[in-house]
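To whoever is covering the structure queue this week,

Two jobs came back overnight. Logging them here so there's a record in the thread.

Job A:
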Amino acid sequence: MTKQTVFRSLLGATAVALLLAIPGYTPVPLEEPQPDRPAAVRPNVIFIISDDHTAQAISAYGSKLAKTPNIDRIAREGAILYNNVVANSICGPSRATLLTGQFSHRNGYKFNEKVFDISQPVFTEELQKNGYQTAWIGKMHLGSLPHGFDYLNILPGHGNYYNSDFVDSNNKTTRHMGYVTDVVTSLSTDWLAHRDTAKPFFLVVGHKATHREWMPAVEDLGAYDNVTFPIPPTFYDNYEGRLAAQKQEMSIDKSMNLRTDLKVDVKYEVDEATMEQEKADFRKAFYGSNQPTPAQEKQLDIYVREGSYRRLNPEQKKAFSSYYGKISKEFADKKLTGKALAEWKYQRYLKDYLSTANSLDRNIGKLLDYLDKSGLAKNTVVVYTSDQGFYLGEHGWFDKRWIYEESLKTPFVIRYPGVIKPGSQVKQVVSNVDWAPTLLSLTGTRVPDYVQGESFLPLLTGGKNDWRNQAYYHYYEYPQPHHVSPHFGLRTAQYTLARFYGPDDFWELYDIQKDPQNLNNVYGQKGYEKVTALLKKQLKDQIIKYKDEEALKLMAANPQ
């Protein structure tokens, strides 16, 4: 892990430890099932959400990098969305938007590693009122245990790929041995097997994969070693005309760490003196001259002693040491520098990332098979999505955060037998702020007034042509961990308009039909005056509609 990643994990775990100190929230008493739909026909819903799994790595979206037969099956048997975007392209805020149906400025969760305010309502409470039993298993990454769930068994912070802890509804922590993607699936099918069969259910299956540091399951180590991936055309992007892109710190060449990211010369065994030195280094990096609280010191000690590699059991450790030992020797022998080093890092990055994704797709298949064998498939909606997009070397990057296409768009496939026609394609622009109202509509549940998104169920069933076809975006987290300038903007079917602020104030405009890779900033160029004026008006209208006061002030301060 990098220092920033470690800090995020520590904060996530610490936040969970402080859950009981958060002021309580009294839910509205559950009502009788609402009469929108008879209880007998209300569908079950399984919402599978992964982490950083991008459409460029999914064969249903045309990827040549990997095969994802089980995700592809959901798309084939239902619908695939080609322009599903997110409202804030980082992990926790995306899940907060799912839960609330609100943008980050409204639900208060703008940055990672904060504590989600559990005094606010979440859409799953409406499902409970409608007679649904609700559960979330796996990664949630909100630093708290929201209401609206009958059952929770979640990873603290980001969790660990191997032998991870889980926190249940009673704030009890249990370590589950095994690979985390397998464990999440096992816990999910176990909950399904023991649920109240008299009620419909809503289950979120939250996977850690494919989050950094990309640790594959043992059986997937080396899965792509015989593949040489093509270098993306934009890998050596010079970022001309894009000031924020010039100042980022998320390049594979300069920012990807050989040891923590690519497992070169990983130390699996360390002595007590080394651990104490590591703690001192982390303490200085994270807290400076301030003294950590006892809780923070405890979490620091736990991480140093039980971090990702130190959680491995002897068999797992042997497999990792053997495989990455060979990789480390290969790297040492090559003595790479310059472009050769950057391209070697890119190859290793993709091999680990896609190998980690193998288990993700395999476990989605296990869940689909369970639904088939249990007879649940016919009346269960299945969604697969990710919290946002991700860079697989485009522009020389990894990570996400930007309003640019690879980061902004996230995969979304959905199956609903008898309602969504197999092979359906949705090309209109929808946002993750629309997920909650759509799920409520699917279940015949009232959409509460606080929800800012809109149901796109009519798009899935072919019954609506007057969709808004534009999406609002606002990213905040700066300067760490990747020095991506905060920005807000608008994505339409043809254009992306963005206003950057913070260290520098400027605008960017892209014609994504002509320039889908966001290489040519045409803001201020001759011929785009009318388009720019129209988009700025639409952006301001969206800002006012969604009540983003910060963005409104920023736009007024620098309208040009």
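Job B:
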Amino acid sequence: MNDRLPVAATERPAPVVLRAHFASALPELAIPWQAQRWPALRLLWLDDGLAEALGWSPAWLRSPAGVALLGGQSLPPGARPVAQRYAGHQFGAWVPELGDGRALLLGEAELRDRGVVRTVDVALKGSGPTPLARGGDGRAVLGPMLREALVSAAMHALGIPTTRTLAVLATGETVWRDGVPRPGALLVRVAASHLRVGSLQWAAAQQDPALLRRLWWWAVQRHDPALAQTAPAAAGPAPDADRVQAWLQAVGVRQARLVAQWMAVGFIHGVMNTDNMTLSGETIDYGPCAFMEAFEAATVYSSIDLGGRYAWGNQPRIAQWNLARLAEAVLPLLHPEPDRAVAAATAAVQAFGPAYQRAWRAVMRAKLGLAGPAQPLASGPWDGLHGAGADADDAWAAQDDALIAAWLQALQAQQADWTLVHRRLADLAEACAAGVPWPTAAAQTLGPLLAQPEGLHDWLARWQARLALDGRPWAERAVALRSANPLVIARNLRVEEALHAAEQGDLGPAQALLAALTQPFAARSDDDPFVQPAPRAWAQRYVTFCGT
């Protein structure tokens, strides 16, 4: 193991505190390690708002001492950086030992968000090889780190649960990827935790029931504190069975809602292996991710996803598959009798389907401007995921599910941009509110996006009839549709342009893109470069890479 690094200087305006709770509680999953020493660390990106929420001075973080801390070169007293162990299924194949090959959990910090204080992880990515590197060089390059910074910022602005990027630093090293020299970089990530489905899988594979239970209980206390307050069964062979099953269902609901949000904005994660699915319900690991433009349910961008396993339309099914692997890992905690344990696990996994369908209906109702029975129109994209009706079907559920399915089927032949076609529904509603006849309004707003406008006529008639059912005025519906449908996403071409410029030393395009991404629902002109999809020929050739 590399030598202990020096403690940071005390010039910081307020103490930076990093606890070692995970490292202390679960040493079996935590390998003590230190970040690589870098020749010339330089701060390229800092999220000032996130730093302030952590109680860390952005001005101090830009100082030499702050940069040294962000780069893992100089840490506060009490910090015990570790590489976390986990296993996982990668493209469906079991890999018993994965873990942080080029990442380090620096420790836990307190984050203040809208008056609520919660514990978060602060971790490095690209911090040098660890004992889990599996032959890799442990480095990261600027392009993939900046991609994660930009896309995670976009997801946060959209209101989608995500890990966040506190900082990106240049390391001063040249890193070779595919025979090409690239500028080395390091990312500082803040996450609700780094516990993954693969974390429980690794613990289960050790055949140590006590370790498995300790890790499960750690996850419950971190992410489901209300469940942690419930009492276990008073007696019997499986006192934790009810709580484990309830926890599995809670993880499933979080994942169902997260994937519904991904689907709603056209996000394709690209590598939904079990080691990339968090127990917290946050999006993590943005390696080969991208956003769908022209609608096609089978859209996939990742260079390594040759079979389309993680295509846009497959993401809900894969999330349930991953939940089944989590359920398998905790079978010993459900019941000592295998049949009863499997029955309890199966019930939890099967609950994912209805949970996802309710979440998908909720987000698509918002995107299509539909109100449920005796419910107001959504004032944002995710209103229906929480509160009244979020956990049950209603009288209009079946017909709305059919309408949503028919919308996807109708769009399949249109080659319409997924983001813009929904935003144009707001323009259609606004035109109708202004007295423009329905057929004219539809032709003017949606027509330019469609390959075969007449192919949408039947669906639009069904939509119009459904709108009459909840009876909201056009003007009110137009406002709701604008609040639910973003105009700006992390367009693939704009992201690639920003990454290319940054590798040439120009961060201007990335800064301009970030400014647009933080205001995804704001009005912009039709010819705004952050609104327009890529040329069709470019989009059809676009491929993403993991960057490892």
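Note for Job B: The chain is about 45% helix and 15% strand.

Please reply-all if you pick these up so we don't duplicate work.
Q.
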